[in-house]
Amino acid sequence: MVWYSGAKKMELQPESDAQPAIKPTQFILHSIVAPWTPERTYEYWRDSTNLESHFGLGYDGSLAQYIGTETRADATGAANRRADGTGAVSLESASNLQASDPWTDAQVESIIRLGVWLHEKHGIPLRICRTASDPGFGYHRLHTAWNPDAHSCPGPARVRQFHDVIFPGIVARATGATTNQEDDMPTPKDLWSYKNVAQGETSDAYAYLRNTKKVVDTIENAVTATAAEVTALRSDVAALTAAVTALAKKVG
Fold this sequence. Notes:
Elements: E1 8-9, H1 15-18, E2 23-31, H2 38-48, E3 55-57, E4 63-65, E5 86-93, H3 105-122, E6 136-139, H4 156-174, H5 188-192, H6 205-221, H7 227-251
Parallel strand pairs: 1-4, 2-5, 2-6, 3-5
Antiparallel strand pairs: 3-4
Helix pairs in contact: 3-4, 4-7, 6-7
């Protein structure tokens, strides 16, 4: 079992031992529609339902882990575990009773740190999931297969934060662009030429951006294109562009 050192371990049993293994390829964010601490969320999973998430996040940024990240957790529909053994790591976060509030600054920071760890530990790629089975990062309502009840989780304000702050923040932190050592700061050229060789990536950020834009245009012009495909890909392009551009300004 794999446990994140940045979270309080609160192991759910019998789920932790009884549920099948997964190969984690996605990180999916949720709002629990209650202003709960991680401890209260644990009690809910333990006592009141047969569902559960891997992580629970409080308003103050406190984080608990209930199940190892290589074990299935039942929070995200078809993404919990697919036939090929891949699955999603899920995080439930404190919210108001309407799930209409944004994540707090402390919550944002905890999510970004966890996202970077999942990228480094499990190789989850730095992109927004383009389909329900595509490896990457996302939120509950992004794909119908994850959200068969068609609710708005994690809420409109948090969806905007995901695209504008959280996903770009994960990309920036994971590429090593945030450092206290000024001499180690990457140049704009470094940022655009970044590739994760350890994960087998052969294209740099600029090539990836151009190729993704080409795919977006192709899908948008195809008769069979779905709104979800176009939205996910355009979000991918926008997030990558925003992250690299912002970092280039900082180090330029």
